[in-house]
Amino acid sequence: MIPLSVLDLAPVPEGADAGQALRNSLALARSAERLGYRRYWMAEHHSMPGIASAATAVALAYVGAGTSTIRIGAGGVMLPNHAPLVIAEQFGTLESLFPGRIDLGLGRAPGTDRAAALALRRSLASDENQFPQDVVELMGYFEVREGPGVRAVPGEGLSIPVWILGSSLFGAQLAAMLGLPYAFASHFAPGQMIDAIRVYRERFQPSAQLDRPYVMLGFNAFAAETSEEAELLATSVQQAFVNLRSGNPGKLRPPLPGYGETLPPQARAMLDQVLTCSAIGDPATVKARIEAFVEFTGADELMITSQIYDHEARLRSYEIVAEAFA
Prior knowledge:
- An eight-stranded parallel beta barrel has the order 1-2-3-4-5-6-7-9, surrounded by eight helices.
- It contains twelve helices and nine strands.
- The radius of gyration is 19 Å and the shape is globular.
- Helices cover 42% and strands 15% of the residues.
- β3, α3 and β4 (102-107) form a beta-alpha-beta unit.
- The protein has helices spanning 18-35, 56-65, 84-97, 114-119, 130-141, 169-178, 193-203, 227-233, 235-245, 265-274, 283-297, 311-324; strands at 4-8, 39-42, 71-78, 102-107, 162-166, 182-184, 215-223, 278-281, 301-305.
- The chain folds into two domains: 1-160, Luciferase-like domain (TIM Barrel); 221-326, no CATH class.
- α2 packs parallel to α3.
- It is α/β, with parallel strands linked by helices and 326 residues long.
């Protein structure tokens, strides 16, 4: 079986706050380390009441201090929100604190809505031309530089794997051109997954970081002792997607029995599409679904995400997945 990793959006459940969400994240990272997951990643989102990982590098420092072996990283940093030098310094600091454990995944979306993007002082003009330049600039700060010039300290001379994240062909093309590993957001935007994988693999050019294509795919898993329980747990993320698409994002809501049956056909169709890359069920069902997905896509690694309201049920879901492939 291919390696499995964890994507944690640091969900803030109803009745809790960001502090509790981040403490839950540390507990999840420790559990993932014990269970043998390869990586633990957090994602940058802004102005989202239900996601506590906005200050991604800060949150990763907290997780890194509480773990010892699992790789930790960003999945990802939305680079157009930042100066490349600042990100090089932040992740250079993380690598200096936790040597050999840091990954840096880069995306070009804002990770928020228009108003918050403006509050980040981000230009709303197209970033398609600037993003590749920013990626190359950032990577350059990790190289040893001679003579005068701007230097990332910490950062310079450190080996920090850079990943390109995406949900379209743009990221696939860029990752292939730069010879970088590619992570596709199939856990919420699966529409162009197969085409993106094909383009990336066909156009890949070896680099100093990577000699062959490497594809990691996002995948939702809601595992429980029974399929009925797993289906119930999944209604929290279903509510989250419906609320987000309705322009009303909020904290992660408790499971709601029969939630899908209350939705109009358009909303049900949206959920079916968004959650295409998901496994919901008992251990045997989840294992079979993951195996079929890997065989279908040829993925080199899966990044498992589980937006589950109850913290203990969330830990147990990741445990079931790990046990299925131990």
